[in-house]
Design goal:
Elements (H helix, E strand, L loop, with lengths): L2 H11 L7 E5 L6 H9 L2 E5 L13 H4 L2 H22 L11 H21 L13
Parallel strand pairs: 1-2
Helix pairs in contact: 4-5
């Protein structure tokens, strides 16, 4: 469908400021329409390349050659890992709760658990300040 990309463009229209802006997205957004619409809005599309797609990726070398593009993809992957964890471990793929408030609480609790799990695995986690290993 087109609805998700159209909604993303509407949200991008609301981003304040006159500074240079980038938008990171997964490979579902690697379409010529979305990339061209972003560029028409003076947004640099840092969309994951979908080279398997018929016709190739809409992201060309002028975007993907920059270090900022690589950084955006690394940060995007870091964010996507939380959603993947939530779908497999946190059971947000098919929630057992009904109602917007309950589903929202389930989602937030799952993301908090994901963050706590990530923080516990960070190097130096659990070592008090000034302690000698």
């Amino acid at each position: 469908g087109f609805a998700e990309r159209a909604s993303a463009l509407q949200l991008l229209d609301c981003v304040p400021g006159a500074h240079a802006k980038t938008v990171g997205a997964d490979k579902a957004y690697d379409t010529r329409d979305f990339v061209n619409d972003c560029r028409a809005r003076n947004l640099t599309p840092h969309v994951a390349r979908n080279d398997e797609r018929w016709g190739g990726s809409a992201i060309d070398g002028r975007t993907s050659r920059h270090a900022g593009y690589r950084t955006s993809q690394i940060i995007r992957k870091r964010i996507e890992e939380h959603f993947g964890w939530g779908k497999t471990v946190g059971r947000i793929r098919q929630t057992v709760y009904r109602g917007i408030r309950r589903v929202d609480q389930h989602f937030k609790l799952t993301m908090v658990a994901s963050n706590l799990t990530r923080m516990a695995r960070m190097p130096g986690a659990g070592v008090p300040q000034g302690a000698v290993r």
